[in-house]
Amino acid sequence: MWRGVRGFLPANSLIVVRGMSSGAVRRLEGKVAVVTASTEGIGYSIAKKLAMDGAKVMLSSRRIAHVERAVKQLRSECEGVSVEGVVCHVGKDDHRKNLIKETVSKFGKLDIVVSNAAANPTMGLTLETSDSAWDKIFEVNVKAAALLVKEAHPHLVASGSGAVLFVSSLGGYAPVPSIGAYSVSKTALLGLTKALAEELAPDNIRVNCIAPALFKTDFGAVLWKKNSVYSDAQKKKFPTWRLGEPDECAGAVAFLCSDEASYITGETIPLTTVEGVRLCGIMCISLFFSVTRFTAFNALAILTEASLFLIDLYHKFSNLMWKMSLGAVRKLEGKVAVLTASTSGIGYSMAKKMVVDGAKVMLSSRKSDNVERAVKQLRSECEGVSVEGVVCHVGNDDHRKNLIKETLSKFGKLDYLVSNAAVNPAKCGMLETSESAWDKIFEVNVKAAALLVKEAHPHLVASGSGAVVFVSSAGGYSPTSSLGAYSVSKTALFGLTKALAEELAPDNIRVNCIAPGLFKTDFSSVVWSNPAFLESMQFHPSWRLGEPDECAGAVAFLCSDEASYITGETIAVSGLWGTRL
Description:
By secondary structure, this protein is an alpha/beta fold. It contains 19 helices and 14 strands. The protein folds into 2 domains: 31-320, Rossmann fold (3-Layer(aba) Sandwich); 336-519 and 548-573, NAD(P)-binding Rossmann-like Domain (Rossmann fold, 3-Layer(aba) Sandwich).
C-alpha cells in the first residue's frame, strides 16, 4: 500500500500559516534568517526585505567595518526591526560555524539560510583561468555554500519548516565568455539546489535558488560602469533588457523563503527582463557572442556598452519597481484582477489570495450557479473584500469580450489577467487522441488564452504596469502518458509565455507562468484517486499531493511589483516533481 508520507511542509499546516484571511500579515513574522555577503548590494536588499517582512536577520560580511555600518544603516532605515551582524568569510570553516552559533545565540533558532557570498578573482576566458582562480571560485561559490547548509542543517530541522536559498546567476544558464569559470560555478549551484532539495525534503526543508541577471551593484560594476554608446542595432536586438536594481532581487527571495512557496522546492527563478532563458537554454546576451569572435575584452566592452541603454530604460520601467516600506502592506492594494476558471480548486484559491492581498477580483466560470456560489463563499470567508463574478466559457469569443467588459464596468480598470481555464476531454495516449479532442484541447488551453490576452491588452496597457499569468502544468515539462495531448497544450503555454513577454514588454506588461504539479482538485482526481498511481509514489518518499492554496502565493507574487524584474518565466509549483534546471 502507498505510504502516507509526510513530505515537506505537511498539508495540514498550510492554510493556518499562509495567512489566507482578511487583513495583512508579515509573512516571515517570527522567523530567523542568516544572509551571507549582506552588507551591500543584492545581499543587503535581501536582508532588508526579510527584516521588513518580520524576520530577525543576521547580517554577515568579511569585514567588521562593513558589518557595523550595515547593521546601523538597516536599523535606521527600518525602525524596530531585529537585526544583528557578524564577521564571516564563508570559505573558512570556523567562520561558518561561528555565524550559525552567533545566530542561534542571539535569536534562539534558525529558519532560513540565504547563501549570497561569491568570489570572482579573475576576468578572462574559461581556458585562461588559472588553477588557483578555479580553486578560489569553487571554494567560495559552491563548496562553502554546501558546507554552510551542512552547518545549519540541525537547526533548520529543529525549526520544523526550514528554507535554504542560493543566489546563482543568469550566467549559470548562459555563461559570459569574460567570466567563464565564475559562470560554471553558478551552474553548479543549480545542481546543488536540485540535489539538496531532494535530500532535505524529508526534513521539511525546502531548497530553492534565484539567478539574477546584470544588476547595478559594485560586484557587477566591471560589467556596467563604462561611458560608451549602445548602438541602434543592439537596441533593436535587446529592446526589453534593462539593468536591474538590487531591491528587485529581494521580493523573490522573501517569497521563496515564506510559506507562500510551501510547494516549491528544487526550483530556480531567473531574474531578468530578457526572455528565452530556460526553455531553449539561451540568454539573449549569448547571441552577442555567437555571431562573431570576441576576446574577453570585447565581451566586456559589449556588456558595458549595454549599460547606458539599460540605465535609460530604467526610468521608463521605474513604475514597476517594488517600493520597500516598513510594516505590512497588502501588495495588490488598488489593483483589479480577472481570473478564469476561478470558482473552485486552484482558481478559487488564487482569487482568494489576491483579494486578501488587496485586489478587486472578477471571478468567472462556465456555469452561473458556480459563479454565484463562489462569489458568496469568498465574500463570507473574507469580509470586506471586493469581488464580483460573471459567466465565461473562454472558448467563446462573446464570453471573453463580456468578461473584460463586465470587469471594467464593475471596477473601472484592469491590471492583472490570470488564465487558468483548461479542458482535457481525452484521458489517453497522444496516438489514441481523436482529432476533435485535439481541437478542443488547443482551442481552450492555448488559443483562448492568447485571445483573452488580446482582448485585455489595451486595458493592461492603460494600467501602466499590467501583468499576465498563465497556469500551465508540470506535465508540460514531464508529460504523463495518459494525458498526452493535454500535456502538449501545457508545453505550448511555456512558448506563449515567452512570446508574449517579448511582445508586451514595451507596454510595461509582464507575462509569466506557473507549472503546478499534482494537486488535490476535482480536475486531477482521475490521477490522484488512482490506487496504482499512489502505489507508484511509494518510491518517492519526499513527494506529497499539493493543496490548492499552495499555488496562490506564486500567482500573487508574479502579479505584484515584487516580481518587477521577472518576465517570460515559469515557476514550477510542483514539490519535487522533476522539471528542469
